Amino acid sequence: METAKMEIETVTELALNYIKKAGFLFARVISVKHEDGQWTVLINVGGYTSDIKTLKIADATGKITGYE
Q1: Is the confidence at residue 48, as pLDDT, over 70?
Q2: What is the tens place of the pLDDT at every residue in 26-41?
């Protein structure tokens, strides 16, 4: 098992900041997972319904590498 360079709190904060800058007013983190040098963060951006967004963040750089 590899050791993460970034702490989970930092990853969560980066993800939420990105989602809010993308224009979503409501955002709740559902899960945060680290594997293969990358963080995967699932965020529900739906106010009354479930609308899940996935962000991928590089552990080495802290940059967003994917968004769906």
Answers
A1: yes
A2: 999 999 999 999 999 9
Tally of domains in the chain: 1
Which residues have a Cβ under 8 Å from the Cβ of 12 and sit 6 or more positions away?
29, 32, 41
1 in a structural domain: no
Up-side HSE of residue 59: CA atoms within 13 Å toward CB? Answer: 16
The CATH number given to whatever domain includes residue 35 is 3.10.450
Containing structural domain, residue 14: 8-67
Q: Which pLDDT belongs to residue 3? A: 79
- For 39, 44, 46, 57, 63, the CA distances from 50, given in Å and listed in that order, are 22, 6, 5, 22, 26
Which pair of structure tokens corresponds to residue 32? 């945060």
